[in-house]
Amino acid sequence: MPDHRTLYDQNPGEYEELVSREDHEENLLPALEELCPLEGALVVELGAGTGRLTRLVAPRAAGVTALDGAEAMLRFGEGLNKAAGLTRVTYDVADHRNLPAPSGEADLALAGWTLSYFATWKVPGWQDETAKALKEMFRVVKEGGMVLILETLGTGHHTPVEPTPELAAFYRFLEQDWGFHRTWIRTDYRFDSVEEAERIAGFFFGAEMADKIRANRWAILPECTGLWCRRKGESPPSAAPCL
Asked: Can you tell me whether residue 17 is helix, strand or coil?
């Protein structure tokens, strides 16, 4: 299993091979729509990667600004998106803490499986660095606009778990310090065979996950996904910033 930093810089194809098999029951788009209607929306997407979320929201949105810190991932996704006929998407390499997007224009700021790396990669002062990214997300949305964060609540689990202490701390930070509301859905991966699941999921998640897939004979790998949301201008808990 490569270091995820290395994977994002050097293995976008292998990453796409994994994520293209996620959410085979197509639960994610209805969940996004329930939280923030996408028809005609302006969307700023952090951690766009190979375009898994971009290809869901762009056909309905008025425009998507797709941002990622890993240029290889972003360019791979740009190629897939253009092949899919998505024309209302712009792309830029960007740090989450300094978004190249105007203030107060977007209806939705979306970050999928990306902000938690401040915690899981043990970035010094990760709370402060995450706060910088969150402030940027709230900056770019209009009053009443939605900030929406997606993260894992357990690969290989049928009901939500907080997979590591670092992720648990990150989720508490979102909820207790920033007033985000949590919901969750299943976004299971579907593979053609157990052996394919072992190979593709094992590459990203490691040998322990490959062993679990083999032991359970999983061609469908359970996945729980959390969605954390908060509207700009919403009255937060007393500890949360008023944005």
From this structure: helix
**pLDDT at residue 32 in the model:** 98
- Residue indicated by tokens 């292998």: 14
Q: pTM for this one? A: 0.95
Domains in the chain: boundaries: 4-230
CA dist list (Å): 128 to 26, 44, 123, 138: 35, 21, 10, 15
pLDDT at 1 over 60: no
Number of helical (H) and strand (E) elements in the chain, helices listed first: 10, 9
Helix (H) or strand (E) holding 201: helix 194-205
Provide the 3-class DSSP secondary structure of residue 125. coil
Residues 6+ apart with CB under 8 A from 87: none
Q: Please, what is the Cα angle at 231 between 229 and 236, to 5 degrees? A: 90
Q: What dotted CATH number matches 4-230?
A: 3.40.50.150
Task: Give the Cβ contact number of residue 56 at 10 Å.
Answer: 19
The Cα 47–Cα 94 span in angstroms is: 9
